[in-house]
Amino acid sequence: MNASRNKAAQKLRMTSSGFTLIELMVTIAVLAIIVGIAAPNVSAQLAQNQVKSTSTVVQTSIARAKSESAISRNTIVWEYDDTNDLITLVNNGNTLASYNLSSNSSLTFNPATVTTLSISKEGNITTPTGGAVNLAIDIRDTRAGATTQRVRVNTKRAFECSGTNC
User: Fold this and answer.
1) What single-letter DSSP state applies at residue 72?
2) Which positions, given as ranges, span the membrane (predicted)?
């Protein structure tokens, strides 16, 4: 009786369960192909999200400058520093707020000479010399795959636009 039980136990030990080496290699190869296909789409999506985020920061910072000018009854200066990728709001020499932009973000101003805006207590947006503003800020990501987003600034507001509306 013991002998037959030992044979059964020995048979159970000899049968193996799990995956063969070939099955594991095929699975890894399929996963590598899927990751290879998905990776470029993910990086393009990340770049596009960065463009959208930077566009929102530009618009929000101008809207905040308008609010701060109304509250303080002073002119607020909105400045973009390309070297440090920084937007600052200044009231009488005091920095009210700073917005750090991603180093992957690229802002192009048209006209190129206007990277500073003055927002009066009445909410009018002008150049520092008092000239009327009709500014286009093109925002893009330095990584491949992202489209350009345009923010328009006029004497009253900043808004996002695309296509023939810009």
Assistant:
1) H
2) 21-39
Q: d(Cα 161, Cα 159) in Å, to the nearest integer? A: 6
Q: Vertex 134, ends 139 and 158: CA angle to 5°?
A: 55
For 110, how many CA atoms within 13 A lie in the half-sphere containing its CB? Answer: 8
How do residues 53-79 score in pLDDT, each as one tens digit? 999 999 999 999 999 999 999 999 999
Going across the sheet that includes 94-100, the strands are: 94-100, 86-91, 76-81, 116-119, 125-126
Distance of alpha carbon 26 from alpha carbon 42, whole angstroms? 24
Is the pLDDT at 99 greater than 90? The verdict is yes
- The whole-number pLDDT of residue 4 equals 58
Q: Strand, coil or helix: what is 1?
A: coil
Domain boundaries 23-165, CATH class: alpha beta
Quote the tokens at residue 121.
């207590």
Mean pLDDT of 110-124: 91
The bridge status of strand 94-100 relative to strand 105-110 is unpaired
Strands 116-119 and 125-126: antiparallel
